[in-house]
Amino acid sequence: MKDTIKREVKEWIKALGIGFILFILIRLFLFDNYSVIGQSMVPTIRDGNKLIVNKIGYFIGDIDRFDIVVFHANGEEDYVKRVIGVPGDTIQYQNDVLYVNGEPQDEPYLDQSKKQLLFDRLTGDLTVEVPEGKLFVLGDNRRGSTDSRHFGFVDIDDVVGEVGLRYWPIDDWEFSIK
Known about the structure:
By secondary structure, the chain is α+β, with helices and mostly antiparallel strands. It contains four helices and twelve strands. Strand 6 (97-100) and strand 7 (103-105) form a beta hairpin. The longest helix has 28 residues, at 2-29. It is elongated.
């Protein structure tokens, strides 16, 4: 009887140990949890939202235009922004219309903000060429976002991953946020 209990305890300790190691590996290499602080991605993502970031996706695939990514902004902070330009793109905004390599692009995530404008522009006019190894990122709340217009291009190596799930608040639960 004593031997049976000892074996059972050992099995539980092994199972818990393996579970803990798997949790750490998944957290380090596959997915991470982020809490949003700030209003730069409103209305798509709001202050206090909790997100799951897919860290492995960019090891096997490319970062695409309009992905929402988390990246290391500096030593202490990570930012959440939308990718507008990838390496080699020429990005131009004229009269609040985005042109990528000369082609106009639809930005439905800005529709709500554009409706609230009376006379002014949301993004402002600009033209940039995205260098190799860099991204041009903007917040969806163009008037309240510190983004590539302010701090420049983001190194692709600083990207943590793509936002894959908003799980808080529960009413706003959403996979593959766009």
